[in-house]
Amino acid sequence: MSTASTSFIDRKTVVDWLGIAPFMIFALMFLVVPTLYLVTGAFFTPDGDFTFKNIADLFTPSILSAYWISIKVSVASSIGGALIGFFLAWAIVLGGLPSWIRSGLLTFSGVASNFAGVPLAFSFLATLGRTGLVTVLLRDWFGFNLYGTGFNILSFFGLTITYMFFQIPLMVLILTPALDGMKKEWREASEILGASTWQYWRMVALPILWPSLMGTTLLLFANAFGAIATAYALTGSSLNIVPILLYAQIRGDVLHNANLGYALALGMIVITGISNILYILLRMRAERWQK
C-alpha cells in the first residue's frame, strides 16, 4: 500500500473518531463519571471513612418497603403497557387497518413516549384528579363518583396508570419492527400444513416474538423504575418509592444522608442494569430470527 493511501486512511480514521468524540465526551461526563461517583460514595461516610453501613442500611424496613413499592409499580406498569402496546402494534401491523392509522399512531407514540415529568402529572391531575375533567363529567352526567370507589390518583394505582401513558407508546415503537419482521412464508407454511390461526400463534408466532416481548417488558420495567419527575410531581412524598426517597436524601431533608442516597442509587443501578442486560440478551436472540 502506498504512503498516500495510508495517509488518507489515517486521516479518515481521525475524522471518524472526531465524529463520535462529542458523544463519547458527553457519555463520559454525564453517565460514566457520575455513576462511578455514586458507586464509590456508597461505601464512604460523610467524613470520608470507608464503611459498609450505607449498604447495610438498604435492608432496613423503610428502605426495603420503598424498593418493594417501586418494583410493584414498575412491574404493573410494564406488564400493562406491554399487553396494551402489543395489541395496538398487532392491530396496525397485522390487523389490516388503513395505513394512515399506523402512521398517526406511530407519530403519537413517538411524542407520548417522551411525555413525562411535571406536564404529564399535571395532565392526569387535571383529568382524573378530584376536580378533574373526567371525574366531574362522570359525577355530573352519569352520577358515578369515581373517588367513592376508593380510586385515588395519588395512590399506587394512580401512579401505575400515569406511567402507562408513556409505557404503552414505547412498547408500540419497539414491538412494531418485530411484528414487521414476521415473514409471510411462516404463516403460509402453517396454513398449508393445516394449522389454525390459534395454532400458528401458539406454536410459531409467539415463540418467535417471545424474546422481543419479554425484552421490551424488561425495558419498560427499567424505564418506570428510574422515573422520578412524574412520581414526585404527582404524589409528592405521599408514596414512598425509591427515586423519591433518594431525592429526599440527597437534596438535604431533615434526615439528610447523601452517602445513603448514593447507596440507594447503587441499588437502583443494579436493578435497572440487570433488566437492561437481560433486555439486550433477549433482543439479540430476537434479531437472529429477523435476519
TrEMBL record:
It is found in: Cell membrane. GO terms for biological process: transmembrane transport. Gene3D superfamilies: MetI-like. Residues 67-279 form the ABC transmembrane type-1 domain. Its main location: membrane. The chain crosses the membrane at residues 20-44, 50-69, 81-101, 121-142, 154-179, 199-222, 229-250, 262-282. InterPro entries: MetI-like, MetI-like_sf. GO terms for cellular component: plasma membrane. Coiled coil: none annotated. Pfam families: BPD_transp_1 (PF00528). Keywords: Cell membrane, Membrane, Transmembrane, Transmembrane helix, Transport. It is a multi-pass membrane protein. Belongs to the binding-protein-dependent transport system permease family. CysTW subfamily. This is Putative spermidine/putrescine transport system permease protein. It comes from Neorhizobium alkalisoli.
